[in-house]
Write a structure and sequence with these properties.
This protein has 2 domains: about 5-30 and about 110-185, Topoisomerase I, Chain A, domain 4, CATH 1.10.132; about 35-105, Gyrase A, domain 2, CATH 3.30.1360. The protein is built from 4 helices and 6 strands. The model has no long low-confidence stretch (mean pLDDT about 90). The strands form 2 sheets. It has a 4-stranded antiparallel β-sheet, with helices on one face. It has a two-stranded antiparallel ribbon with strand order 1-2. The longest helix has about 40 residues, at about 110-145. It is of the alpha+beta class.
């Protein structure tokens, strides 16, 4: 393998890994009927004029499979946290007892499970688009090296290696999507 292609392979792997990692993060936010503190990762609270993630204002725990408990370090932030959860359109109703907020996670309906499965597939397609964009960028770099004197055979080998890396990441995305869909569709 020529030294001139190694940085391109490395770039391809790191860019595709970023797309995969982003997909993992997005899928964590899709609730599968089980309580998970990561469900609140996208919820920001207006705390003294600053948008602050709930996880930085409170201890968020899953007390059981259907209940999240939010215990803020500053009791004065309880109404603001409650307001932010309502505004997040998660379909959850916070129960504030003055000390902590409880979120009861209702079981998913069949219709909602199908919607979530579509959303999961869409997120997977976004990741695949990112992977394909990385492939195109790397192939363009290889073609530029061809114009600078890299042999046609080495360029073809380089493009084949980029395609191999792309295929591996595509399989990883498909496996992750299938596992998350299975988790969502399982009653």
């Amino acid at each position: 393998m020529p030294e001139r292609l190694k940085p391109i392979y490395s770039t391809a792997k790191s860019t595709m890994q970023k797309a995969y990692d982003h997909l993992e993060k997005e899928l964590m936010g899709i609730r599968a009927g089980k309580a998970s503190p990561s469900m609140l990762d996208g919820v920001s609270v207006d705390y003294y004029g600053t948008k602050t993630p709930v996880s930085q204002l409170a201890n968020v725990t899953a007390s059981d499979a259907r209940t999240l408990t939010i215990q803020p370090w500053d009791k004065a932030s309880l109404p603001e946290i409650e307001k932010a959860i309502f505004a997040s359109n998660m379909g959850l109703t916070p129960q504030n007892d003055g000390e902590i907020i409880r979120l009861n996670i209702p079981p998913l309906t069949t219709e909602r499970r199908k919607q979530l499965a579509k959303q999961i597939k869409a997120e997977g397609e976004h990741a695949k688009v990112g992977i394909r964009n990385a492939r195109k960028s790397c192939n363009d770099q290889i073609k530029a090296l061809n114009k600078d004197g890299l042999s046609d055979d080495l360029c073809k080998d380089g493009e084949a290696e980029i395609q191999n890396i792309t295929n591996n990441f595509g399989k990883k995305v498909d496996q992750l999507i299938a596992a998350k869909e299975n988790e969502v569709m399982t009653l």
